[in-house]
Amino acid sequence: MADPRFFRRAGPISLQKIAEIAGGALHHAKNPELQIADVSPLDRAGPDDISFLDNKRYSDQYRRSAAGACIVEPTFAAQAPADMALIVTPTPYLAFARVAQAFYPEAAARPGCHASAVVDASARIGEGSEIGAHVVVGAGAEIGAGCRIEPGVVVGEGVHIGDGTHIGANASLSHCDVGACCAIHPGVRIGTRGFGFAMDPGGHVDVPQLGTVVIEDFVEIGANSTIDRGAGPDTVIGYGTKIDNLVQIGHNVRTGKGCVLVGQSGVAGSTVLEDFVVVAAQAGVAGHLTLGRGAQIAAASGVMRDVAPGEKVAGAPAMPVREFFRLVALWQRQLRKKDVKK
Amino acid sequence: MADPRFFRRAGPISLQKIAEIAGGALHHAKNPELQIADVSPLDRAGPDDISFLDNKRYSDQYRRSAAGACIVEPTFAAQAPADMALIVTPTPYLAFARVAQAFYPEAAARPGCHASAVVDASARIGEGSEIGAHVVVGAGAEIGAGCRIEPGVVVGEGVHIGDGTHIGANASLSHCDVGACCAIHPGVRIGTRGFGFAMDPGGHVDVPQLGTVVIEDFVEIGANSTIDRGAGPDTVIGYGTKIDNLVQIGHNVRTGKGCVLVGQSGVAGSTVLEDFVVVAAQAGVAGHLTLGRGAQIAAASGVMRDVAPGEKVAGAPAMPVREFFRLVALWQRQLRKKDVKK
Amino acid sequence: MADPRFFRRAGPISLQKIAEIAGGALHHAKNPELQIADVSPLDRAGPDDISFLDNKRYSDQYRRSAAGACIVEPTFAAQAPADMALIVTPTPYLAFARVAQAFYPEAAARPGCHASAVVDASARIGEGSEIGAHVVVGAGAEIGAGCRIEPGVVVGEGVHIGDGTHIGANASLSHCDVGACCAIHPGVRIGTRGFGFAMDPGGHVDVPQLGTVVIEDFVEIGANSTIDRGAGPDTVIGYGTKIDNLVQIGHNVRTGKGCVLVGQSGVAGSTVLEDFVVVAAQAGVAGHLTLGRGAQIAAASGVMRDVAPGEKVAGAPAMPVREFFRLVALWQRQLRKKDVKK
Questions:
Q1: In CA terms, which of A96, B36, B119, C313 is 20 to 30 Å from C93?
Q2: Phi-psi bin for B59: left (phi > 0), alpha (psi -120 to 50), beta?
Q3: Coil, strand, or helix at residue B324?
Q4: What is the CATH number of domain A13-103?
Q5: ipTM for this model
Q6: What's the mean pLDDT in B156-175?
């Protein structure tokens, strides 16, 4: 089970109830009222635990598992151990996510403002929000209801934060509006000056960056990531977008709904990501481009052109992913041919 | 106009005065005393606004713009709409930067030291400086006049900061001297231990890093970037150098005047950048190299050798940029040839 | 000598004593009781200083150096200037590291808890630890003896920190156990939520991340690096591992003893690094892989497969390093051939 120093477990929860939460069908359940105590991986689960199988690499573990219940796809139902109850669904990982959230709900805000926090008299804090030690909230800022603002966070003047949003330790926000139910992790920087200046041998001259950052609802931003404010238009992070750690988002970038940006990737200024674009780890996207809906950018690639909706690209400069792997195969053949000649 | 929660606009400013600020020639102005209220992009500007044209991609917008005035190159002057006054200059973006700064000057320091700041009795703070909430200033540190030190900043023992410098929220500085008129953005780490140790299977042994970081005047350092102190010699960031977000500068690195390092790039220990070198996004430069004056390193490239003054390189390992693009074209031909064979 | 604002020098130390610290043999020493005052590079050292030669590039400097003593390999002993005492060892850099530490020991903790720190009543702080200004220590946290916790650090609920560990300014730790004698640099984020969610067009669903981070003894973590907690198993950073700045470690990653991860590198979830693996700057390692003992990953490479013990790889996708350099040579020949044809 999860370390009780850090995690509070709810439950137990009956199989019947878990099936409802999972949105799956209960099979092989001798007793639908059986109480399940915890979630656990297949190889460590016992009769009080529920586990899941999402990757056939682990099907051996599944067939030998002592888990009391397991969430699986229909095709694996027949291989279950004799005493295992099943929750059958075409999307077991998604179902498991919901079940695990039921056992381990997010820590709720502990309402109140720590005595060491410095909150400007003109700022407004919504009901039930927790303002941690040494937090600073600037003039005119508004924080919604039920927010958790961890210690050391700096909320700049005029910033708005929606209900139920969680800001991690030592993050700082300026020139921005953050939606509801967002998770902004420790050390994130939002609203910083875009990298805009006119180059001049006598000294580069800053162009005032007069836009803001708009973070829509249900966005997650990983630790120490940075999101610059717009130069004139705003920088926008769309509804439900997931950003990992150490990601850089330049000024005027707009992401659509449900985009995913993995660790250490970066998007340069004014580029548009339509809905559900995935940018994998350490990939870079140049400025002033459009990545179409559902485009997928492989890890470590460097994108220098628009990417069509649904297109998958890899390499630097990025090309269609099949072409990239054919190119890699070609290199390998060329190297072997050279061996033969020697 | 810019969001008044975050930006204070100066003005209005007469066309005549704007032309002086821009260093351009006023053309087609029926009334040089016309008062301009704001800067605005071409497609949103009205008769009270001034805009600029720097990229011919936007020349259609320019020909249709309702802007009262526009900053343009001489070649575009003839295409202006009938009622538009012009400020003509060979460098419209630079001119616009100066004009925009006149309308939106940097926020001035609000003199005083917040009651929650912890400033050592032996530290000195210059006249008119603003020391934010929860700032910590160590023994013997000296902060110049007219500085803005945002909340949560930690200024280590003995650190010196020049006049008019702005340090963003939750940044930390140690073992360094920072010049005048610098902008150090939120979360920046300056003066951290260089990555120096003697490898040993019994346990790597740290080599004390006994140098400092010297940041010259008018330097900008982007959010969450890191600059290690020297191992013995100092790490030096030259006058007017611009560093973007999440950039890593290793120990003993020296940059010249006016260098530009774009987001997520990195320079390894003891490498020298002469004046006006540009390192584009996500590029990496190995240690103990010299990049000559005006060298340009393309995005995502990996530099493993010296680069001559003015040379432009791309790729990993980096090669002359034309060679890199010829190589990419060669790959494309090889892939096509293989298609034919199939 | 090192800037006295930032560094406190111990000593002087006799040659005899230095030889003991270095673990080397004293040669050419007219007076073993000669007092040495400082460490210094060859080209700046005087008769009171000790220097070292580790790289034959600097052998000219060595032959002309005025250093009173020098740490060298046996093969260089004969070339020493007439008045130079020698400490002879097969590992001069390692020996120098130990000597330099004797002259410049790490600053000791100044016991006590700053009045502005917020330490929960249920937290425990070991003897002789220094808790800086505006530090926050959560409920149930335990900090060992002789630790230095710099200003602005946030230690989350239940976190344990071992004896003699140093945490840099504005770092934050949650869901973790940190060993003894570690150096966690400014802005580091430990224990943040892993990037785990089930993708769903209706809104990605977070998978609770129920593991912790375990940092073993003598680990160093560079400025602004991020280490996510495990999803179920823990993320583990092994004994004596050295991590540079802006490095990203995903959930469930395990490193062995003495690994080295250079600046801006990243390791994706569930990958295992056996002992003494080196991941060079800006390299990326995909998830669910194993890098065998002593494997070396070149800078900027992208690893998409397991790497055998002792194997050296480069390129993206990574291949054996010799193959990579043969490939680069092949490209160069192909480009030249094309020139000829023109």
A1: C313
A2: alpha
A3: helix
A4: 3.40.1390.10
A5: 0.96
A6: 98
